[in-house]
Amino acid sequence: MDQAVAIAFDNLPLLLSGLWVTLQLTALAFGLAVVLGTLGAACRTVPFTPLNWLGATYVEFFRNTPLLVQMFFAFFALPAVGISLPGFVAAFIALGVYTGAFMRDRHVRALGLHPGLPLLEAYDYGFHHPCVVWAQWAPWGHFWVLGGVMGSDLHLDAFLPVVERYRQQWFPNRLRLDVTCDPAGAANNSQGLRGTPVGMLRDWYQANGERDATGAFVVPQYLPDANHPERRTAANQRIATYMRRQVQQEEAFLVDPERWALVELGSEKADTWFVDGLEAGYVFEDKPRFSATLGTYSLAKKDGFFEHGQNCLEYLAQMFVLDLPQSNEQALKTQATHAAKLVRDNERAASKALRAAQKDVDPEDKPRNRYGFAGRRVMARRAVGRRFR
Fold first, then answer.
1. Between 1.25.40.10, 1.10.3720.10, 3.30.559.30, 1.10.1060.10, what CATH number should domain 7-103 receive?
2. Distance from the Cα of residue 276 to its chain's centroid
């Protein structure tokens, strides 16, 4: 220990010099990133196709290459074409290009509820941090994350009334509710509660009259192996694919910036915990893992806070996101098919409601035999047969 301190003191001027260079690069790269991010966002939004292509090329090229490759390119490859840069300038440009691709709010914008799609709801039973995230998935290739609530030092029985209130406040005109959850909620004595979290959810939906597409009370769905590393990694890759794609000139993956709340007993506040988690990204484990299916891969660490919203996103992707974003032409066809199906479903529902309204339910009418009219004839024939025995 003493030797390490002595070495540090002997090299203190060099260490301070490196710290100063790091601070300079951070400040300059941040400024360049802001400029490039603003220009890139403008290119993606202006009604001029060449600029749209330029912005898309910038994002796809620089975002999908590692930072170290960017630095090597700026310092070693540019001199090959006659452009020589000092090491500091090369690092400054490489940092700015890479950071600019990641910091632009291309995926964050105000979102409304699509009236023709179900509202998707996902639960993670974090220890004292229960979490719910709402989203919608369109079969033609859009994945919209609409909002969420995370509890702090709350058990699920105290959390559910809060969720119900926010759901009614934010999504009062939903088509229906489809629910998924952490498979750990099927185990007894989870979170120290009587029964299981899945059972509590089922009872809650029944008590509040939430019904699924068949008219039955909502029952949470879950995949028993949803927390397995292979499943989580595949879900992360699918979500990342949505983040990189566009459908009909719009980002396939979008997040609402406003509908996020952090609640605890006696206190509720708006908070950007989910968006902050996406911007920071997953922090991977120090050592990679290996499986026969995926080969070598890395898994996200458990941080006790941001992970809960990200786990909800994984459950949504595993249960409800059934395909990758489609091409513009295929998306138009899928939208037309979905709209036609929605019209047919509405017509069937209206016809069913009309038949129910026209049904004679006068309480003064004589109640029918449990066998019906045909049953009465059968019983009469049986009585005649007994008479002649």
1. 1.10.3720.10
2. 14
